[in-house]
Each structure stands twice: as C-alpha cells, then as structure tokens.
Hints:
Layout: H1 10-21, H2 25-32, H3 36-43, H4 51-61, E1 93-96, E2 100-104, E3 114-121, H5 126-129, E4 138-145, E5 147-152, E6 158-161, E7 165-169, E8 174-178, E9 185-192, H6 198-205
Antiparallel strand pairs: 1-2, 2-3, 3-9, 4-7, 4-9, 5-6, 5-8
Helix pairs in contact: 1-3
Amino acid sequence: MNDQSVPPTLGTVLKGIRSRHGWTLKEMSDRCGIPVSTLSKVEHDRLTLSYDKLQQLSRRLKIRMSDLFADGPDDSAPRVTGRRSIGSIDRAVRVVTDNYDYSYLCTDLRRKRMIPILTRIRAQSASEFGDLVRHQGEEFIYVLEGRIEVHSEFYDPVVLETGQGIYLDSSMGHAYVVGEGCKEALVLGVCSSADENLMDSLMNLHN
C-alpha cells in the first residue's frame, strides 16, 4: 500500500511549501513572523496552529488559507472521479474560534463540493455568539453529543437533541449555540456547494 492514501498533516504541508521555495526554517520564520521553534514543532506534527496564526501565515506567504489544508498536485490537474478519503480526528486540521472548535476532515482532497467538519460548540447563547453567519451552499448538522439550539434568520430557534439533525440553506443567517443544561456540544456537519471555492468561503468566516 502506498502513502498517497494518507492525508497530509499541516506539518507536511508547511514542509512542502518551504521545500518548494528552498527556504530554511529561519528564512520561513522571517517571512511569516512565526518563531523557528514553533514552525519546527508544527513540521514534526508536535504542534498545530491557531486560526490567527494560520491567517498570518497565509497573508504573509501570499497563499490561500485553503492551501494550508492540503498539499498535492497543482490546481490545473485534471478532475478525477471515484475519489475517496478516510477522515479521522487525528488527521483533521483544527481551527479554534471563540464560538467553535473546528476539526476539518478529509483535507487531502482539493476542490471538494462537500466539506465535512466535526465541531465542538462552546457559545452559550445567541448574544454570546454574535452576528449570524452566512456562506454559500447548504449544510447538514447532526448532534453527536449534548444539545444545541439553532438560530436562523427566518425561523424561530429550535432545540436539537443528540441523534437529531437539521438541513438548511447556508446563505440564510444562522448560528449554533449550546442548549440548556449543557456546557458543550459536539456535532458533525457537512457543508455543500457547487462552487469549488467553498473551503475558502468557510475559512473567511473564522474572522
């Protein structure tokens, strides 16, 4: 069995970017403003980066945020059918925000029309969450642990228990918060869109 079926880690992606440019760790550190020791730990899969650091890396290296989630053939490569990717939490790319802890699954595949995300919800109320979010496409959220309250632009809030899910239009303002009696909740979400830039749209939401 070859290693092409194994999704690359963030460390592998960073090492590949550095290698393609012929940079040393020090040179990459000078360019992106992240300490050499941190970059070294990331490349050896002993540390991940917060969203702020991923954003800083993307901005200073002048690459798209989504390019940090997969490393592979050039985007001009022909489309393939019959693709597959095995998603696991230990290979997920983690992004931490005030409201959610995101674990992006199956990040080895580029140009996906479905983005699977394991999300730990921490916001306790709509006021704590802030403005409703909107992005292209549709999404399905399934509650794995705990209880959540779904707020949306055109509907009254609805409570979902473990084992329940909701399908909605993602362009409608929406927010997920922890339901009464729970400190956190874990959900599996799948975001879908015909637009191949869906991952970039989701990354921009983390601001």
